[in-house]
Write a structure and sequence with these properties.
This protein is an all-beta fold and about 325 residues long. The protein has 1 helix and 30 strands. The chain is globular, with a radius of gyration of 21 Å.
């Protein structure tokens, strides 16, 4: 008689819970759940429910990865300074921004971040630095823009691009680079845009997608200039993004838009929708296999507080074998 040990060369291993070291196709027995489980990979990306924000809001900043993210600022609909940290399951309130604001740009990680610019007000060019515990005011951006795109590795290295302006042309093509001390204007976007999505883990490698002025467009920053690449499938504004300039996702864009598109460095592919459509959503994530969507606007003036977690195609997942 054929057995697992005879076919594979070893008996089924017993674990009290998930076997985190399992490889694709490996089988084990979960003694806690009382069931056989195996490791497979997803064939298409999908969203699952995560822990809700303590303060529902939209037009907020967001940085980090799915298991270690930071949400800050936004509208409730009043501007808020609230900052929250995500550990992969729940949000915890931490120290507030010094100035309540929304429509700000963002860059960095959950322990080292920047929140810059924002809507017209008393300090529209303000820049704040997060050290994992508190926010400190640092050098202002050179030119105000609301809803700018942002990218960067930490609070010493960031990029700000595009955005809306209160006077003159509605949208901006300006790009500024942060070195930890000051902002320097660098090469402009090819097309001025506002309310676009921005993402990237370095100030020398960023992605700018959609937005008013070019709702279908994608531009990629290489540290020197912007290059126009493949369009997204569904043009939109007020969308969110997460990941790197070669591996990213974009999602949302309007109260009734739940579309998610995956970027592989060359082209966009539509995959699983958000459970709830929305615009001005916060985003975080390592790449196109692991992302986070939080907050947003689901109707005019309505703030949303839910969180959704993205698992992309090719990601390892644990499945349970039903024997009854």
């Amino acid at each position: 008689m054929s057995t697992y040990k005879k076919e594979v060369g070893t008996a089924v291993q017993n674990f009290a819970g998930d076997y985190t070291g399992a490889v694709q196709g490996q089988l084990w027995y979960n003694s806690t759940a009382g069931s056989f489980q195996f490791r497979s990979v997803t064939t298409t990306g999908s969203w699952a429910t995560g822990g809700a924000l303590n303060t529902a809001r939209f037009r907020l900043g967001g940085v980090g990865i799915q298991t270690a993210a930071l949400a800050f600022g936004g509208q409730t609909p009043a501007n808020t300074a609230a900052t929250e940290s995500y550990d992969g399951s729940a949000w915890t309130e931490v120290n507030d921004l010094n100035t309540a604001r929304s429509a700000l740009g963002d860059a960095g990680t959950s322990t080292s971040a920047l929140g810059f610019s924002g809507p017209p007000g008393s300090t529209p060019v303000q820049n704040e630095s997060w050290n994992g515990t508190c926010w400190s005011e640092v050098a202002d951006v050179n030119a105000f823009r609301g809803d700018p795109g942002g990218a960067g590795s930490d609070n010493t290295s960031a990029l700000m691009f595009g955005g809306t302006v209160p006077t003159g042309p509605e949208t901006s093509a300006l790009t500024e680079s942060w070195n930890g001390t000051s902002w320097t204007e660098v090469a402009d976007l090819n097309i001025a845009r506002g309310n676009q999505a921005g993402t990237g883990k370095l100030n020398t490698a960023a992605l700018c997608v959609g937005g008013s002025g070019d709702p279908d467009g994608t531009e990629q920053w290489n540290g020197t200039c912007w290059t126009t690449l493949a369009n997204i499938n569904s043009g939109r504004v007020n969308l969110a993004a997460a990941g790197t300039y070669t591996s990213a996702i974009v999602f949302g864009g309007a109260e009734d838009i739940a579309l998610t598109e995956v970027w592989n460095g060359t082209s966009w592919t539509e995959q699983g929708d958000l459970a709830q459509g929305g615009k001005n959503i916060g985003g975080a994530g390592a790449d196109n296999t692991s992302g986070l969507a939080f907050g947003g606007q689901t109707a005019p003036g309505a703030a949303y507080g839910d969180t959704e977690e993205w698992t992309g195609a090719g990601s390892p997942v644990t499945e349970t074998i039903t024997t009854s």
